[in-house]
Amino acid sequence: MIIAAMISATVAFATAPTPQSGFSFREARLIPVQSGGRVKPLDEFAREVTLGIFGKRIVSSWEPTELLISLMLDSQSWVAEPIIKIRRDDVRKQLLLPLDRTDFSVQELMQNPAFLQYGEAQALGVEQVDSLGVNSVSKSDPRADEVKRTLQKVQTFRGLVTGDILLLQPKPVPESWGSLASGIKEFNPLTDRFSRLLKSYLDRKPEEFLLASREMRVASLAEMKATENDQRLLQGEVIYNQVRPFLQAMILYLLASLAWMLSRKREVGLKKNYQDVARMVAKSLTFVAFFLHGTGFALRCYISGRPPVSNMYESVIWVSFGVLFFSFLLYRKFGTTLILTTGTMLGGLTLFAADSAPVILDPTIHPLVPVLRSNYWLTIHVLTITLSYAAFMLAMGISNITLWKFLKPSSTAREQMIQQLNQFSYRALQFGTVLLAAGTILGGVWADESWGRFWGWDPKEVWALIALLAYMAMLHARFSGLVGKFGFPLWTVLCFSTVVMAWYGVNFILGVGLHSYGFSSGGQGVMATFLALQFGFCGYVAWRVRVAKQK
Amino acid sequence: MLRIWRILISLKLAVTVIATLALALAVATFVESSEGTKAAQYYIYRALWFYALLTLLGVNILAVALSRLPWRARHIPFLLAHAGILMLLIGSYLTYTRGLDGMMRIDEGDTQSAIELEDHYLVFERNGSVETVSIPWVPSANHFRPSLYEKYGIRSVSYIPWSESKVEFVADDQNAEPAAVQLKVQGPAFMGSVPDLWLWGGDPAWSTLSMGPARFSIVTDPSRLSTPAAVGEAHLIVAVLPNGKLRFRAVSPRGEVKTGEVAVTGLIDPGWKMPIRIAVKKLLPHAKNLSRLIDARVRPMGSSVQPAIEIASLADGKRRHWLSLGDRIPLSGPSGEQVTVGFFPRRVILPFGLRLEKFELKVYPGTQNPAAYQSLVTIMDRVPNAAEDMSKNERLISMNEPLTQGGYTFYQASYIPGQPRPTTTILSVNADPGRVLKYLGSLLIVLGSITLYAIKSFGKRPKEKVKTA
Does residue B46 sit within a domain? Predict the structure, then answer.
């Protein structure tokens, strides 16, 4: 038998497995498997499993599919490798694990009595007792969460090695596909093919492997009676994974931002034609990045078969797209490249945030929960609201620059610049407030259609309203002259914290209400730092302006 | 008068009201997160001062609009947006005062016409007549105002917003009370702890308990240990022996039987497939039940509140009784007649019923995650003849596809999980007289604000106008 059942007493000093040269995975990647409620290519499954064990979608130098195969074939070595991260000190203490390192092997954990006991408790369904109301539990304990996550990692590893979670025998639609494990118990031609594929990898025969992968793929597609569209979907997803359009776009946006900056720097002493070159470069970088961003977006919609409305990751990508969109609009109107510098910078940073924490912002394409399915209003509502966040983000970015200008010595040029910048962010705020008002109301329409209540004081909708009210208070204050050319950018920056709360805070900090399908945890530190820096900066500038006025 | 008018039409007031509203709402979400939805409603969303604040906002908008008389064409966007806000506020007020929002639960094959609402009622029944008194939820006993219901000779004494039963047994050897035993299931305990189990022979409600996949019982007479156990379940039956030890009989789901005797602090190995042991923590040959309702420390947000109210009959002044939501108790009225007092959620009976023909749940392939669920119902607006075909009254209610009937709208809200498939649906039922105003108001707000921004000149409002108004 090729697939070794996991034995806890394996060789302790195995060397770490490494990728092998000469193998091509272009066929193996495309093998259809079922997981998480939909059919996906093996490549995507491999990335999800990698995320489920290592906490990241790609492990350096490994092709995801090859890593998957290696984990299955060489489990005896992998089981001894420190691949599972436990970050919390208190959890390591509780599990009596060494405190001087954070990475542990599956074997170590499987031999840990406290950890095993927890696993048994989970398997026994102690939580059932909780739901019966005998033992009422309030908010989840972050330590228990960490242990649970670790347990899930070990279970994913175990499920992969036993072949339980690899579902590769197609069945008619509502049914669950047959697993590799069940195919080994009872002979199945597809699992047999897959075993041959694995064997050729083990025997280090690249040509045979490629051939076996191809046969496996063709046979699976035939078995699931795949239409051309099904095949295109699988290919599309592999391309999406390979190209990583959002990652590319992020890099290009940041480079473009730099180029836009250079194209404006007269003080640096760049000659006129250098500035023109910088401008050209910036323009093309921005264009290519935006094109990649949009294409990636379209591809993701195509793969998932729905608009990107389901989770935080998708909303971050969409907001980043919106920031660029609004900066183009403003640039068209006012023709100042500073808007594009800000837009590309914000867009790049937002994409960076989306790409850098796959555990917190899960990029996996999951099927929708029932209430989110097939609803026209919902799609419009979510896209409108998040688009308003983009406009506010752009206004925030521009206003930060305005505040920065206040630190410079007073001059006519400075005053002109400030006035101009305030005009830009005011325009962005107009887009933002209209979209947020419309989006919040559309949310009411959707809630009315789905639940029969237009407004239910649900925290997510309340925070959207708070953000709207905050901006409204500020705009009315500006209108009446209560805030001036300095107060306006200051409050624009401060008001953005209400957007942060509505967008991120409700789901990650409050964790209450009907929008529970988007709840998650993590990233509090980053968000707190961002807000602290913003408030600190505002305070500093306000103090400087005050001092300047007194003189 | 003029001064008040000046304040009412000032933008400063608008900014203050909007900012206060935003601040109040922010506080409300944190109150909800820590104290629960009901508390947030009590302190903010449904508090009088909050309505006053919204009213002030409405008055401010109205005053500003009137101050611009006579209206010109350039005022139109401003008027549209602000009229929209007024309509939205009025619509919401109508919904709050005249609307109805409840839940209907139907089992497959049953006909249901009752809706359960969120407010709670004391129900008095005497000689076949029924009267209800509303008991609004309050966040603590201190906020509760005891009252006297003279007609029935009943008074309310105290209140617990989040009740929890506290289990307590004490040794009582004077009176020949039945035995009690405290057990603790061990093995899977790490971090999440399994609560102690108390079994008491004095009351059927206490003599058998189910926990997860297992059932635990106590019998008063050791000779009755061999009474047949539940079929297909892990069942542990215990009895206290005169020598102070515990005799047990453990039956596994497959019917294997294990018997034995243990003393206090001993361990029972039931020999089930699950690797658990049961520790005998306390053994009381004669025990008095002092279990009661207490205020729960935990205020989980999503789960519904479980209030309890304490009442007493004037005719029997000393004895007080706690009623949890859903309880009822017979007491004696002023002239010794029987008065039954119940504490229930408010119910509304619709003029028609819904019969659940079939509840369907679809899951995503290869997972347990629900993809969609729907209820096939028949509208029963009269009692059908035996021969009549009611199938033309069949309607499908699914997520985002509600049913409207007789001014009420029924939404697919949830279901009660069941094996092998769920057969109980939960519909959300709603009647909203403010809906039209709210939709119209929303439309005006969006239209108004778009035109407001589109027309630039509005920003240059002549200042003198305000002073002359």
Answer: yes
Give the CA distances from residue A159 to residues A3, A153, A312, A370, A497, in Å, rounded to whole numbers and listed in that order. Answer: 12, 10, 28, 28, 43
Q: Are residues B424 and B441 in the same domain?
A: no
What separation, in Å, do the N-terminal and C-terminal C-alpha atoms of chain A show? 85
Q: pTM of the predicted model, to two decimals?
A: 0.83
Within 8 A by CB and 6+ apart from A141, the residues are: B191
Q: Are residues B207 and B263 in the same domain?
A: yes
Which chain B residues in 96-155 lie under 8 Å from chain A, judged by CB atoms? 101
pLDDT digits (tens, 9 = 90+) for B205-263: 788 887 766 788 898 888 887 776 666 778 888 988 888 888 999 888 777 888 888 88
Residues B403 and B449 in one domain: no
Contact assignment for B192 to A174 by CB distance below 8 Å: no
Of A34, A117, A465, the CB nearest to B188: A117
- The answer to whether residue B146 is domain-embedded is no
Q: What residues of A are in contact with residue B453 (Cβ under 8 Å)?
A: 430, 434
How many domains does chain B fold into? 3
Contact criterion met (CB < 8 Å) for B371 and A167: no
Look at residue B190 and tell me whether its pLDDT is greater than 60: no
Separation of alpha carbons B249 and B235, rounded Å? 8
Q: What is the mean pLDDT of chain B?
A: 84
Do B107 and B92 lie in a common domain? no
Residues of A in contact with B21 (CB under 8 A): 469
Q: What is the mean pLDDT of residues A173-200?
A: 85
CA–CA separation, A214 vs A25, rounded Å?
A: 10
Q: Tell whether B378 and B454 lie within a shared domain.
A: no
What percent of chain B is modeled with pLDDT above 70? 89
* Domain of residue B284, residue span: 168-289
Tell me how far apart the alpha carbons of residues B259 and A405 are, in angstroms, rounded to a whole number. Answer: 85
CA distance A496 to A478: 16
- Residue with token string 């036993």: A162
The domain boundary residue, chosen from B289, B313, B334: B289
Report if residue B314 sits inside a domain: no
Contact A452 B101 (CB under 8 A): yes
Touching check for B14 and chain A: CB below 8 Å? yes
- Does residue B243 form part of some domain? yes
B387 and B454 share one domain: no
Residue where a domain stops, chosen among B289, B310, B330? B289
B211 and B278 fall within a common domain = yes
State the DSSP code for A9: S
ipTM of the complex: 0.83
Phi then psi for residue A308, to 5 deg, are -80, 80
Q: Which residue in chain B has the smallest CA separation from A116?
A: B188
Residue-level pLDDT at B267: 85
Claim to verify: residue B282 and residue B358 sit in the same structural domain: no
B14 or B221, which is more confident: B14
- Is the model's pLDDT at B7 over the cut of 50? yes
Best A475, A476, A519 member to test B by mutation, with max B CBs in 10 Å, is A476
